[in-house]
Amino acid sequence: MSKIGIFDSGLGGLTVARAIASRFPASNLVYLGDTARLPYGAKSEEAVTRYAVRCVRYLVELGAETIVVACNTASACALPTLQATYGRTRVLGVIDPGARAAVAATRTGAIGVIGTERTVSSRGYHSAIAALSPSARVTALATPVLVPLVEAGWIDHPVTRLTVETYLSELHTAAPDLDTLVLGCTHYPVLRTLLEEVTSSLFGHSVRLVDSAAAIAEALAPTLAGLETSGGRDAIGERHFAVTDLPSSFAKVAATFWPETLPPVEAVDLTMD
Ligand code: DGL
After folding, report:
1. Between 192-203 and 158-174, two packed helices, what is the crossing angle to 10 degrees?
2. What is the pLDDT of residue 230?
3. What is the pLDDT of residue 78?
4. How far is CA 142 from the centre of its chain?
5. Distance between CA atoms of 29 and 18, rounded to whole angstroms?
6. Which of 46, 90, 104, 257 has its CB 3.0 to 4.6 Å from that of 14, i.e. a possible disulfide?
């Protein structure tokens, strides 16, 4: 049965792995977190592309037929290079599915995007949304401090609430009419409840949150047809987790993202060449 390779800069991509595993339990998943080079969000496009190329090569060598670039930053920077090497249908990123879900969700055409510095500066969501809906207005804001807060497990914490309020006030000032917000970073779905509360109190109207993890799982439906939960089957596919540094720390923090006990996490040394 086909194997899906999921790649992220670290463990945030487990939100994507989780969404895929819930929707298609019988799929065989191999997950690689590039924890040796995390975070990608503040690095240059060239560096992120170099890292992504190496990581995807590892997943291909392990036999992954389909590759999901779970990391928004790597999707924004490296997808054209990866698709030029392995093909457009074999390597999928999170930006296009997220953009599609945002365009489907918005009523006012005012869409917000939050993500890392590099995701925002790449304007990847702007282009993907404009290609689908030229009249949409996109306001993007880098919200990098949320990543370490989630990794610290500060999900329901006053510091995280204050940080979210500070960022979203800025977004509200820039685009008070936005009705859809793309969570353009692997870590943000974990903060969904808090983001919902803060957006509804700040904006005074409901703001739909678009989770790119759910959107990419949806995009895999044609590839993984027959493995959906709805089939009533209990088969669980193979799960393989690997990181490029500190597997024990990964396993500890992963509890925030992956509710079940993780199988042993393998350490792999991916020398850059
Ligand atoms: N995985 C990254 C993303 O979705 C966030 C963490 C990082 O900066 O590496 O953009």
Report:
1. 40
2. 47
3. 98
4. 15
5. 10
6. 257
| C-alpha to C-alpha distance for 39 and 217, rounded to whole angstroms | 24
Residue 44's alpha-carbon distances to 51, 109, 188, in angstroms, are 11, 31, 22
CA proximity to 96, closest of 82, 112, 79, 109: 79
Residue in 95, 187, 190 to alter for ligand 1 test, most ligand atoms within 8 A of Cβ: 187
- The whole-number pLDDT of residue 228 equals 61
Give the pLDDT score at 234.
66
Do residues 51 and 119 both lie within one domain? no
Residues in the chain where the model's pLDDT stays below 50: 230-232
3-class DSSP state of 68: strand
Q: How far apart are CA 71 and CA 74, in angstroms?
A: 5
Residue 109, classified by CB atoms within 10 Å of its CB into exposed (0-12), middle (13-18) or buried (19+), is: middle
Residues 101 and 206 in one domain: yes
Sheet holding 208-211, edge to edge: 137-142, 110-115, 180-184, 208-211
**Same domain, yes or no: 208 and 245:** no
Q: Are residues 62 and 133 in the same domain?
A: no
pTM of the model: 0.94
Q: Are 179 and 107 in contact (CB under 8 A)?
A: yes
CATH number at residue 162: 3.40.50.1860
- State both tokens at 97: 């599915």
Q: Ligand 1: which residues within 6 Å by Cβ?
A: 8-10, 12, 38-41, 71-73, 115-116, 119, 147, 185-187
Q: Which residues of 65-95 are buried (b: 16+ CB within 10 A; e: fewer)?
A: ebbbbbbbbbbbbbbeebbeebeeebbbbbb
pLDDT computed for residue 225 by the predictor: 73
Distance 95 CA to ligand 1 centre (A): 13
Q: What local confidence, expressed as pLDDT, does residue 89 receive?
A: 86
